[in-house]
């Protein structure tokens, strides 16, 4: 596991009591695991029952520290995992009191089983919330990785867990309740693997989560496969897997990378649908579930029904994501084809499409605007300064027109304003606001830049085409530029130029 030796201040909610490093957290987690192992080997029944309780307390304290001091973490993860830890701790406390101290053979009841199920739901939901948050830019890849994770555990279910459950005469409902957490854990582990390359500083936290889930899955597998069919007893040492898992969860909380958990990586692309992965996901259930029938045994109904249903849902989710991505990409391409990249304004082609549509609904005025003194700025200070002036000019043009008007960039330092329903007086008023707005200085990198504007105004006449209307406005703009003026009505009004 990569470590960062430099101390990291994880502050945010007040004075931070300690400065942690990844190496220090790793050493603490490993030391706690060693102590737990030695305690199990040398301790009595009370010590055995105290180990899971103490690991729950350690994880709960770590989560409280996260919520108190790690302001950069993604809080929903720990707000969900925290209650799960507390619920498991309450069950382990009951076991410690009744079995460890009281000498009872068991503390299991229907209530404790329900509490454990609810606790796991909370903790799995916390991990899922982190997957959804971190996978904002790569949700499709995470779903595919989840399918792969589930697929890899299918043989584990079919050849280890299911035979053990059948030996224990576990009903179908009980088998489903075992299969679903196995699939959930495997899916989350697959999703975490997909996020590792883009985890950056949060990688250690995700690795701890992966280890905690892997240890839990191992513990569950050992517990089921090593249960005595007659007595229902399990090896006492199985608890060490869950103790180690809880300590890894504490490590995930305390690692300084957790302070970066709230930041969504920007370099994780969605990628395209990889059909082989989806195909394998859909085929695994029927293929593996039907294997027992080849040997004269009943097919695996749980896998064929519940398992296949879960995988089918994930495949449909991935296909739906792919369709949404395709539609979004199509909208982006249309947007790029119709708008100027620098200013975000409609480009020349789209402007003429809009002008044609507006003309069909009635009269329209167009204002052809050309910036004055722009070329010296671009030549002297460079294209960055010129681009900044163009973006500022575009913003001021939008602020000077009416809500129904359209501002577009024709090219270079030329802009076109389409004013539906405007007459000479209305167009002149808009022109004056544009002149006033663009006469204001523009600050750029310590420089104060100034540009002016020459404007040609043309109001449409009956039977006049869009090209002819724009050409008249263009000619009037050049007349104004030659005269060194930026708004003389006798030079810019279309009727005065005829």
């Amino acid at each position: 596991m990569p470590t960062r030796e430099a101390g990291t201040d994880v502050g945010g909610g007040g004075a931070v009591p300690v400065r942690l490093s990844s190496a220090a957290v790793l050493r603490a987690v490993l030391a706690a695991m060693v102590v737990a192992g030695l305690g199990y080997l040398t301790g009595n029944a009370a010590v055995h029952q105290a180990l899971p309780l103490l690991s729950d307390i350690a994880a709960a304290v770590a989560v409280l520290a996260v919520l108190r001091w790690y302001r950069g973490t993604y809080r929903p993860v720990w707000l969900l995992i925290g209650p799960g830890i507390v619920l498991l701790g309450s069950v382990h406390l009951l076991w410690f009191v009744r079995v460890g101290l009281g000498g009872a053979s068991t503390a299991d009841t229907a209530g404790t089983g329900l509490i454990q199920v609810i606790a796991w739901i909370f903790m799995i939901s916390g991990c899922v919330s982190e997957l959804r948050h971190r996978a904002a830019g790569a949700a499709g890849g995470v779903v595919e990785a989840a399918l792969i994770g589930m697929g890899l555990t299918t043989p584990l279910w079919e050849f280890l867990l299911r035979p053990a459950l059948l030996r224990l005469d576990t009903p179908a409902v009980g088998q489903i309740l075992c299969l679903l957490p196995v699939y959930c854990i495997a899916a989350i582990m697959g999703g975490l693997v997909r996020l590792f390359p883009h985890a950056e500083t949060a990688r250690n936290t995700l690795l701890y989560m992966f280890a905690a889930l892997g240890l839990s899955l191992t513990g569950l597998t050992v517990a089921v496969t090593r249960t005595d069919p007659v007595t229902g007893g399990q090896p006492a040492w199985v608890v060490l897997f869950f103790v180690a898992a809880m300590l890894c969860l504490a490590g995930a909380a305390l690692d300084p990378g957790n302070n970066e958990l709230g930041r969504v990586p920007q370099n994780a692309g969605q990628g395209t649908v990889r059909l082989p992965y989806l195909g394998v996901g859909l085929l695994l259930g029927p293929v593996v579930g039907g294997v027992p029938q080849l040997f004269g045994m009943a097919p695996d109904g749980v896998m064929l029904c519940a398992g296949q249903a879960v995988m089918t849902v994930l495949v449909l989710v991935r296909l739906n994501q792919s369709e949404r991505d395709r539609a979004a990409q199509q909208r982006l391409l249309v947007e790029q084809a119709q708008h100027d990249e620098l200013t975000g304004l409609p480009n020349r082609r789209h402007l003429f499409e809009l002008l044609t549509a507006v003309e069909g609904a009635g009269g329209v005025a167009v204002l052809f605007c050309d910036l004055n003194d722009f070329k010296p700025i671009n030549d002297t200070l460079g294209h960055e300064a010129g681009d900044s002036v163009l973006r500022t000019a575009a913003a001021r043009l939008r602020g000077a027109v009416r809500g129904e008007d359209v501002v577009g960039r024709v090219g270079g330092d030329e802009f076109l304003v389409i004013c539906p329903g405007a007459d000479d007086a209305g167009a002149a008023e808009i022109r004056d606001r544009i002149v006033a707005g663009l006469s204001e200085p523009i600050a750029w990198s310590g420089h104060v830049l100034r540009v002016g504007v020459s404007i040609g105004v043309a109001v449409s006449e009956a039977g006049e085409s869009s090209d002819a209307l724009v050409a008249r406005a263009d000619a009037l703009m050049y007349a104004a530029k030659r005269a060194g003026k930026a708004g003389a009505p006798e030079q810019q009004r279309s009727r005065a130029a005829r």
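The longest strand covers residues 364-372. Residues 348-497 form a domain with the Alpha-Beta Plaits fold (CATH 3.30.70.270).
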